[in-house]
């Protein structure tokens, strides 16, 4: 029996590594592509979920981080830094441990989910809460990487994008071709850039007959690409994509236009409704930001933009356990019962 080796070993010939690159891996990638029955019925399409919360640190960031940390180690870096809304920092912290490096993370003060903060802390990262938003954190991280001996592992580091494109490879490898439409949440816009790169690469090399239309969704209060202008004070409950000035903005526009796709926004209400649908009807627990893809698909279906019979993949980017507040909020508090079958059965409605 052979286990999945991680994205670098599985796709070595398609990634910027050499025989002498030290591979730092937690065996990321190889994530489930799960048929979504309820979403398929609702849209009249064949909908699949690429469940990226199944990665080692619970988000798609691990695909890029194995590349960024391996290359940083090869180049002799002893410390890495990133700005993050939480998942990048969790991933960087874990991979830095594997590489024996120091990890510094800059997060927007009070605006990252507790699970993600816990990950960075337990992996021993040096965390600074910045009095500003994600965009301010990224500016500061770039400045520090310019002036001090510390390697930047945000997705402005091109090898991150290279690692993340492997998700598109996996989908084509599973389905035998690219889907008709690929839907994903957009924050800093690295991931939509990466998927488009992956799909294009496979099509160019004859491994896929077609390329999907790329559909990206921002949160309505943080939708600079949709608005066509940076948002100075982005707002949304989907903290992972609370970003007002995406670093990969131009690449996202290219992915949209070259693929004949679109980038639109979904409200927090639509995000939370998709979040609950995924958990209660598909059995897939994601963090709120991840549900933006599914919220977008449902919005597009309501607008009549989804022709029946298409094959659609929605990436759900992060694990629901990272941000459980939204699962508990508004839900009835579980009843306390004595150790008594009759009482428990009565509460459960099993007694007729
Ligand atoms: N979904 C989740 C769960 C994320 O953590 C992110 C980005 C996105 C979607 C958006 O992806 O930025 O490539 O468009 N999180 C970054 C972070 C910003 O710091 O963890 P993107």
UniProtKB/TrEMBL annotation:
EC number(s) recorded for this UniProt protein: 4.2.3.1
Keyword match DNA-binding: no
GO terms assigned for molecular function: threonine synthase activity
Cofactors required: pyridoxal 5'-phosphate
Functional pathway: Amino-acid biosynthesis; L-threonine biosynthesis; L-threonine from L-aspartate: step 5/5
The Tryptophan synthase beta chain-like PALP domain, residue ranges: 24-318
Keyword tRNA processing: no
UniProt keywords, alphabetically: Amino-acid biosynthesis, Lyase, Pyridoxal phosphate, Threonine biosynthesis
Reactions this protein catalyses: O-phospho-L-homoserine + H2O = L-threonine + phosphate
Domain of life: Bacteria
InterPro entries named among the record's database cross-references: Ser/Thr_Dehydratase, Ser/Thr_deHydtase_PyrdxlP-BS, Thr_synthase-like, Thr_Synthase_bac/arc, TrpB-like_PALP, TrpB-like_PALP_sf
Chain's role: Catalyzes the gamma-elimination of phosphate from L-phosphohomoserine and the beta-addition of water to produce L-threonine.
Record family assignment: Belongs to the threonine synthase family.
Stated name of the protein: Threonine synthase
Gene label: thrC
């Amino acid at each position: 029996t052979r286990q999945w080796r991680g994205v670098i070993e599985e796709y070595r010939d398609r990634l910027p590594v050499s025989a002498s690159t030290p591979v730092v891996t937690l065996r990321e990638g190889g994530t489930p592509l799960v048929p979504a029955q309820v979403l398929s019925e609702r849209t009249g399409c064949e909908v699949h979920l690429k469940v990226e919360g199944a990665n080692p640190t619970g988000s798609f960031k691990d695909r890029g981080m194995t590349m960024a940390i391996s290359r940083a180690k090869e180049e002799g870096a002893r410390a890495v830094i990133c700005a993050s809304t939480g998942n990048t920092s969790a991933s960087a912290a874990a991979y830095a441990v594997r590489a024996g490096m120091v990890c510094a993370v800059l997060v927007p003060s009070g605006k990252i989910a507790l699970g993600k903060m816990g990950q960075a802390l337990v992996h021993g990262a040096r965390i600074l809460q910045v009095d500003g938003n994600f965009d301010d954190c990224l500016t500061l991280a770039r400045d520090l990487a310019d002036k001090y001996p510390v390697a930047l592992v945000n997705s402005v580091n091109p090898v991150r994008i290279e690692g993340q494109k492997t998700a598109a490879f996996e989908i084509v490898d599973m389905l035998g071709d690219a889907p008709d439409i690929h839907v994903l949440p957009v924050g800093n816009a690295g991931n939509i850039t990466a998927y488009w790169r992956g799909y294009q690469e496979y099509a160019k090399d004859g491994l896929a007959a077609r390329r999907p239309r790329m559909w990206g969704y921002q949160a309505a209060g943080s939708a600079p690409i949709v608005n066509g202008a940076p948002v100075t004070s982005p707002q949304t409950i989907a903290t992972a994509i609370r970003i007002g000035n995406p670093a990969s903005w131009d690449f996202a526009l290219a992915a949209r236009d070259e693929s004949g796709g679109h980038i639109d926004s979904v409200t927090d209400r639509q995000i939370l409704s998709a979040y609950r649908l995924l958990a209660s009807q598909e059995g897939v627990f994601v963090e709120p930001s991840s549900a933006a893809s599914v919220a977008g698909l449902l919005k597009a279906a309501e607008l009549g933009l989804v022709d029946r019979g298409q094959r659609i993949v929605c990436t759900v980017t992060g694990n629901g356990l990272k941000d459980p507040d939204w699962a508990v909020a508004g839900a009835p508090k579980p009843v306390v019962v004595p150790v008594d079958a009759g009482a428990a059965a009565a509460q459960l409605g099993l007694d007729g």
